[in-house]
Design goal:
By secondary structure, this protein is an alpha/beta fold. About 35% of the residues lie in helices and about 15% in strands. The chain has one domain (about 5-245): Alpha-Beta Barrel (TIM Barrel). The chain contains ten helices and eight strands. Helix 5 crosses helix 7 (about 140-150) and helix 7 (about 140-150) packs parallel to helix 8. It binds phosphoenolpyruvate. Phosphoenolpyruvate (PEP) binds next to strand 8. Pathway: Carbohydrate degradation; glycolysis; D-glyceraldehyde 3-phosphate from glycerone phosphate: step 1/1; Carbohydrate biosynthesis; gluconeogenesis. Keywords: Gluconeogenesis, Glycolysis, Isomerase. It catalyses: D-glyceraldehyde 3-phosphate = dihydroxyacetone phosphate. This is Triosephosphate isomerase.
Length: about 250
């Protein structure tokens, strides 16, 4: 089964009503391919705005995080139910910035993945190693550790998209080479096949880390790179070119 090409835009903690509206209007005007799934992930306060302003049928909206309870006394947290209520279909979980700055453990991420899926959201699950781990030859071990925490709690991965995002490549301008990314993605798929069997062939594995219009073309012939999770470049007009990069 062919895997639908996927491009996510993680705006991180950036934007304003005006700048986010400009991004959505630019995409509304663009001639986007009908066979690419796009997910825009603005900060929480702008989710409803993006849902309302988006006119592209292939563009969906995702949150950058959510909590593992439906409601209750969890001041400051956001429930998957709120997201669904707003028309938000995806959530990014396990981003390295949350693991690093907010001390989110593998288990906590896995619990959130399980809960978000059970509430009907689709999950973009981020994994990836630090520069030190890469230098020590531990890339796939780290990916396996982060994936296995989820695999222990979630058996059906239909609604999970994996984003391999080497931490040393995020926001640094130093993207992984297409060949290196393909090698890691193939290892990830191989590992997934040991825990979820044949379904591993259907799971999309995105590359993230300084992906931009000028380098995504190099990943074109990589059979395990099923799209991109884009940070900085998703705030720029070139995001449309990244979406069109497999045409
Ligand atoms: C990200 O934050 O998910 C990301 C990939 O960032 P950037 O593209 O800016 O490296």
């Amino acid at each position: 089964m062919a895997r639908t090409f996927f491009v996510g835009g993680n705006f991180k903690m950036n934007g304003s009503k005006e700048s986010i509206s400009t991004i959505v209007q630019n995409l509304n005007k663009a001639d986007l391919p009908s066979n690419v799934e796009v997910v825009l992930c603005p900060p929480y306060p702008y989710l409803a705005q993006v849902v309302a302003e988006n006119k592209q049928p292939t563009v969906k909206v995702g949150a950058q995080n959510c909590y593992l309870k439906a409601s209750g006394a969890y001041t400051g947290e956001v429930s998957p139910e709120f997201l669904k209520d707003l028309g938000v279909g995806y959530v990014v979980l396990g981003h390295s910035e949350r693991r690093q700055y907010f001390k989110e453990s593998d288990e906590f991420v896995a619990d959130k993945v399980k809960f978000a899926l059970s509430e009907g959201l689709k999950v973009i699950l981020c994994i990836g190693e630090t520069f030190e781990e890469k230098k020590a030859g531990k890339t796939i071990d780290v990916c396996k550790r982060e994936l296995s925490a989820v695999a222990e709690k979630v058996k059906d991965w239909t609604n999970i998209v994996v984003a391999y995002e080497p931490i040393w490549a995020i926001g640094t301008g130093l993207a992984a080479t297409a060949a290196d990314a393909e090698e890691v993605h193939a290892d990830i798929r191989k590992y997934l096949s040991t825990v979820i069997g044949a379904q591993a062939e259907e799971v999309r594995i995105l590359y993230g880390g300084s992906a931009k219009a000028s380098n995504v073309g190099g990943f074109r012939d990589k059979k395990n790179v099923d799209g991109f999770l884009v940070g900085g470049a998703s705030l720029k007009p070139e995001f449309a070119d990244i979406i069109k990069s497999r045409q």
